[in-house]
Amino acid sequence: MNLQASPWALIDWERIRADFPLLTREVHGKPLVYFDNANTAQKPAPVIEAVDDFYRRHNANVSRSVHALGTEATDAYEESRRKLANLLNVRGDEIVLCSGTTFAINLVAYSWALPQLKPGDTILVSRMEHHANIVPWQLVAQRTGARIKVAEIREDGTLDLDALYKAMTVDVKLLAVTHVSNVLGTVNPVREICREARKRGIASVVDGSQAAPHRKIDLPAIGCDFYAVTGHKMCGPTGTGALWARKEHLAAMPPFIGGGEMIKEVSFDGTVFNDPPHKFEAGTPNIAGFVGLGAAMDYLQGVGFDNIEAREQALLAHLTEELDKVPGLRMFGRAPQKAAVVSFLIEGAHAHDLATLLDLEGVAVRSGQHCAHPLLQFYGVAATLRASLAFYNTHEEIEAFIAALNKARKLLA
Length: 413
Ligand code: PMP
Known about the structure:
Layout: H1 13-17, E1 26-27, E2 30-31, E3 33-34, H2 45-58, H3 68-88, E4 95-98, H4 101-116, E5 122-126, H5 135-144, E6 147-151, H6 161-167, E7 172-178, H7 190-199, E8 203-207, H8 219-222, E9 226-230, E10 241-245, H9 247-252, E11 263-267, E12 270-273, H10 287-303, H11 305-323, E13 329-332, E14 341-346, H12 351-360, E15 363-364, E16 366-368, H13 373-379, E17 384-388, H14 395-412
Parallel strand pairs: 3-15, 5-6, 5-7, 7-8, 8-9
Antiparallel strand pairs: 1-2, 4-10, 9-10, 11-12, 13-14, 14-17, 16-17
Helix pairs in contact: 2-10, 3-10, 4-5, 11-14, 12-14
Bound molecules: 4'-deoxy-4'-aminopyridoxal-5'-phosphate.
4'-deoxy-4'-aminopyridoxal-5'-phosphate binds at residues 38, 100-102, 130, 132, 178, 182, 207, 209-210, 230, 241, 371.
């Protein structure tokens, strides 16, 4: 691989990596190799400092106080909404801040789907969804009498698009699809998929958890109805995330959770709700978390999504090439468009045993079902090992990981 030929190779990735304090630590006496980024990303110093600075200098609740600290906290919280909107190329008043993708999809389920679905309606869900984009639809189906239909995948981990479009029959009211699979790394052609759904009057919910940290997201170009993101995978704090929804949807949707902040006026005769997006943000939010998320948005924009994507693609190519040399290795997901997530198994070795031995070498990977039971059922396996990379990982870490994997494989043989 000719790294010098690409313009992004001029970026000082070593300096960028040095922004992440945790990456310098050792685990079991070995330098940490953190390959569990699809689970949660590490945080750069500016994010950690923004949270620290908020608690040291600005801490107050949002929206309720006219005093200086209250105004500073509210401004910082709202600034985070603006930054997220800017990142996704949408309006700020279409961004509902919430605890993450799980909450965001449940908001669509309870506030959009529950009031309008009825017996005879269908929710189309892809086989490769995370449980967060399956279980809320099952709960809605149970309560409305709607049914769930599965959009199947092919052996290589791509969605069967012909079958998907055929499955978009008149009874289908909603499509739930992930932008990027957290197990296979498959990047789904969501622009085309959402266009086909829209043509047939089907609302689309796209799970952007694994896409937004790794590529430029242009929501108007994708053309979905709902898009969910989670802050902790985008170098931001845990408990932060957002739902983007078209303005007309947000205006028509009833509130999901009631309480303070989401109202204009309350009496025992009734309540006048706040305008969207505040109508959906009851109670005290994770203010410090969103301040940190704002810093994370600045950080990622600073590195540049084109650079992030190119860097991760180079790491993925290296990792795939090395894994393909490992005897007895079965890789799940060979989509032509793939993010830097690789799931695999090694013949004769249990995924958890391998992960435990890798941990002893300082390597953090995830083993298990990755909150995607139906996907693993498709492949007929109980667990996989998953290595998921971020732009701050290095080619040297890939070499260390492969060496540790070969050592573990031989121990278990
Ligand atoms: N969807 C996907 C594709 C995910 O990878 C995850 C996190 N593992 C989620 C949803 C859940 O997101 P959150 O952590 O925000 O609840």
